[in-house]
């Protein structure tokens, strides 16, 4: 279920590290990651890369060696909180669209590539080269992104409404990979609904809750970035996005308490 150990480490800080002053002892990280199936070598390698990336910073506290979140990492986690744990609401067709048009020169190709990838993670669909579209409610985040990247002179932002030609639902399926996203939602619902029934019917151990909670977050976390929350009229009839969100939020509500009790044992054991 888990992909990269570094993303799991960051999730641990998001769930528990911030409550401990943005710091976790390396021994606690190794123990908790071990519960999730990662060996010590993989954990230390991931932490080393995160340190190089500016996500974690070495800090000793008392006799304990550990890592503290940097300001950049705290900003990433704060943004993740807003996306991951918010109730999903579909956009309205009447509100229209934010349309981003850009032509970034070859001398700025690194920023151009970064802009494209960040637009995807803000839920934008690609209409054609240099033309991207998302529900209008994304406009403020989009404006902030352009300013952050320093690309104001190369980018134009418009508000639009579809007037013609052809069904907008067909175009949406081309601009966003709705078929692939729909399949991923169906898989999430199939797997996590079984887990939800299990926890509704009996209470497992705190360690089981910890593993299931971290796996559920890892399985869910890409959806709020790839799914723009399109108006319902444009979605496939079998769309499971709303159901998936409901399952995720209910699982988190059930699991987060006992999961935190398990994590706290390790965090306390290696506290300074």
Model description:
The protein is of the alpha+beta class and 272 residues long. The chain folds into three domains: 5-77, Orthogonal Bundle (Arc Repressor Mutant, subunit A), CATH 1.10.10; 97-160, Alpha-Beta Plaits (2-Layer Sandwich), CATH 3.30.70; 178-269, no CATH class. It has eleven helices and seven strands. The chain has helices at 5-15, 26-35, 40-53, 71-84, 109-121, 139-149, 168-175, 178-201, 206-220, 223-226, 241-269; strands spanning 23-25, 56-61, 64-69, 97-102, 125-128, 131-135, 155-160. A four-stranded antiparallel β-sheet has the order 5-6-4-7, sandwiched between helices. Strand 5 (125-128) and strand 6 (131-135) form a beta hairpin. Helix 5 packs antiparallel against helix 6 (139-149) and helix 9 packs across helix 11 (241-269). The protein is globular and about 65 Å long. The two termini are 32 Å apart. The relative contact order is 0.15.
């Amino acid at each position: 279920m888990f992909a990269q150990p570094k993303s799991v480490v960051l999730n641990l800080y998001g769930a528990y590290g911030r409550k401990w002053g943005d710091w976790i002892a390396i021994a606690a990280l190794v123990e908790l990651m071990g519960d999730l199936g990662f060996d010590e070598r993989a954990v230390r390698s991931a932490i080393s890369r995160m340190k190089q990336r500016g996500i974690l910073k070495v800090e000793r506290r008392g006799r304990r060696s550990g890592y503290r979140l940097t300001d950049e990492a705290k900003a990433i986690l704060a943004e993740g909180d807003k996306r991951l744990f918010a109730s999903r609401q579909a956009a309205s067709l009447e509100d229209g669209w934010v349309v981003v048009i850009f032509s970034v020169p070859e001398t700025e190709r690194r920023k151009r590539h970064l802009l494209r990838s960040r637009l995807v993670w803000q839920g934008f669909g690609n209409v054609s080269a240099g033309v991207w579209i998302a529900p209008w409610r994304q406009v403020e985040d989009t404006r902030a992104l352009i300013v952050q990247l320093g690309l104001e002179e190369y980018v134009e932002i418009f508000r639009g409404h579809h007037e013609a030609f052809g069904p907008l639902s067909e175009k949406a399926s081309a601009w966003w990979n709705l078929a692939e996203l729909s399949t991923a939602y169906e898989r999430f619902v199939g797997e996590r609904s079984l887990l939800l029934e299990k926890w509704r019917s009996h209470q497992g151990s705190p360690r089981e809750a910890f593993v299931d909670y971290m796996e559920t977050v890892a399985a869910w976390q890409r959806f709020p970035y790839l799914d723009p929350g399109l108006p319902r009229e444009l979605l496939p009839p079998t769309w499971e996005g709303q159901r998936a969100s409901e399952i995720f939020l209910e699982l988190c509500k059930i699991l987060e308490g006992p999961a935190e009790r398990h994590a706290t044992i390790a965090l306390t054991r290696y506290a300074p």
